[in-house]
Amino acid sequence: MDERAYAAMMRMTIHPLFLPLLFGLILYGNVSYYALILSSLLVHELGHMLVAWLLGVKVKRCVIMPYGGEIELEGGYALSPHKQLLISLGGPVATFCFMLMASFLDPILAKQLIKIQMILLLINLIPVWPLDGGRIVFSLILIFSKKVKMYELFLAISLILISLSAIITFVMLPQTLFLFVLSIFLWMKVVQEWRYRKYRIAFEKYVLNRLT
After folding, report:
1. Domain count along the chain
2. Which of 47, 158, 176, 186 could disulfide-link to 129, CB 3.0 to 4.6 Å?
């Protein structure tokens, strides 16, 4: 294995939010199901990291989340939007390929794996920040619009949609406890990004203008 790829894999960590899911599955005796979920998330993130490696982009670290993961790339927003788009697509493509491969396994195992991949794809392709779908939209904004105002509008829409998700899952508690906690976590991530939106003025002058 390439030294850079191995070093990137060694930087993979699990976010504390993932622990309640682990304990819940162990409590109900679903350790094997947890193993399948964790394996699926690792494959998903390796898809992102593989594309980054192929594009010559260094991965600083990767944090496994309940919905997938977040990778920190060297260069950040200064990366070419086309590279950001390809790296964002890497995870969903890896998940889709894993789902196709799972169909050749034992029917019982294949059914569980395919279900996990479909849920993972469904969640990650929702076009809100910071999910893969949101990062894909962000890359497309850089490619076709190059305006900070479009970025702010995208964040505002993400905030509204996630807020609605948090309200709906709260009303349906306790059956939707995990989805509610996940919605709150995503809401906090969008709010954090919104607070730093003013710094996108410098981002627009340096990166967006450089790309025109």
Report:
1. 1
2. 158
